[in-house]
Amino acid sequence: MSLFKNILFLILGFFLIIFSFYDIVYDLGLIVISIVAYFLLIFFYIYLNLRESKTKTVPVDIDIVEEFEKTLKGGLYHFKCQTCDGFFAIKKSKGDNKQYVKMTCPDCGSIGVIPPNPSTIEDFIPEKKSIKANFKCEICNERLTIWAEGTELYKKLHIFSCPYCGKIETMKKV
Ligand SMILES: [Zn+2]
Ligand SMILES: [Zn+2]
């Protein structure tokens, strides 16, 4: 909620209080209108807040999929899933992201998050690569290429938030 909208609601609420005060003092009989106006004000306030929170929040409440990050070259990262111990790779079009990324594991499909600065471990990456899946952010145009290492790619792979801009439900399969 922007400061401007909050002030607007504050002013509207203030006028409404003045109005109902006059109504009571001078007995205008408009109490029903005042109550309806209060409810409308509260309803719109909640509605606007809900609509904005849809495009803002970054989900971080789920168990972490990622266990290691190993930079090979040019924005290619490898991760290990804590649920299935499988490896997968993410290739990004943009530079360092500072956002949490919520996604399904490309190996087993369990949901987890990758933190902005994941811890690193050394491990062996399997030779066999799966087919690749491409995603693009509708807001900032960040592009991701994802594949599973040593296994098939999980069919219903889903990226819940953009690694670059952090907006949710903007990563679409291309
Ligand atoms: Zn997994
Ligand atoms: Zn984005």
Write structural notes for this entry.
Helix content is 26%, strand content 21%. It is α+β, with helices and mostly antiparallel strands and 174 residues long. It folds into two domains: 3-53; 59-174, no CATH class. α1 runs antiparallel to α2 (31-53).
Backbone shape: rod-shaped
How many helix segments? 2
The side-by-side strand order for the widest beta sheet comes to: 1-2-3-7-6-8
N- to C-terminal distance = 32 Å
What is the number of domains?
Answer: 2
Give the DSSP E fraction (strand runs of 2 or more residues).
15-25%
H-E string: HHEEEEEEEE
**Can you summarize the main beta sheet?**
6 strands, antiparallel
Average pLDDT taken over every residue: 82
Q: Which ligands appear in the coordinates?
A: zinc ion
Q: Which segments are poorly predicted (pLDDT under 50) over 5 or more consecutive residues?
A: none
* Oligomeric state of this protein: single chain
Structure class = alpha+beta
Using DSSP, what is the number of strands? 8
Helix content: 25-40%
Give the SSE layout.
Blueprint (H helix, E strand, L loop, with lengths): L2 H23 L5 H23 L16 E2 L4 E5 L6 E6 L8 E4 L6 E4 L18 E5 L5 E7 L21 E3 L1
Antiparallel strand pairs: 1-2, 2-3, 3-7, 4-5, 6-7, 6-8
The site of one zinc ion has 9 residues, from loops.
In short:
By secondary structure, this protein is of the alpha+beta class. The chain has helices at residues 3-25, 31-53, and strands at residues 70-71, 76-80, 87-92, 101-104, 111-114, 133-137, 143-149, 171-173. Strand 1 and strand 2 (76-80) form a beta hairpin.
